[in-house]
């Protein structure tokens, strides 16, 4: 069984976060250390440590992460100008929190790299 991270506590509302969206599969909240004017994390409610650990059973939640990111990009007014969706995996990917998450970053021209 993988070890829980701070994201499980955010999902269960045990610690504060700026939660923008939650349903039975995913939760989205603002990154505590934003690297762009809009920087939101979209996470599955189920603990999956890395993208190496995803299973076919997770496909619904993973698809929901993208449709929620799309909705939030529209809500934040960055859909038309554009944005970037990023998932980091393990050490070389720069992953710090071992509960998979999709970074939604935008609100400015991002250049070649943002999160890492
Ligand atoms: P990664 O490097 O892809 O694992 O990204 C982890 C992200 O989680 C970083 O951008 C952190 O700023 C963010 N983060 C860590 N703790 C919190 C928290 N308590 N609330 C919101 N974002 C967090």
UniProtKB/TrEMBL annotation:
SUPFAM superfamilies linked: HIT-like
Keywords recorded for this protein, A-Z: Hydrolase
InterPro entries xref list: Histidine_triad_CS (IPR019808), Histidine_triad_HIT (IPR001310), HIT-like (IPR011146), HIT-like_sf (IPR036265)
First-tier enzyme category under EC: hydrolase
Catalytic center residues: 101 (tele-amp-histidine intermediate)
Segments forming domain HIT: 6-115
PROSITE patterns named in the record: HIT_1, HIT_2
Classification of source organism: Bacteria, Pseudomonadati, Pseudomonadota, Gammaproteobacteria, Vibrionales
Encoding gene per record: hinT
GO MF entry, a single one: hydrolase activity
Span of the annotated motif Histidine triad motif: 99-103
Record protein name field: Histidine triad nucleotide-binding protein
EC number: 3.9.1.-
Pfam hit, one: HIT
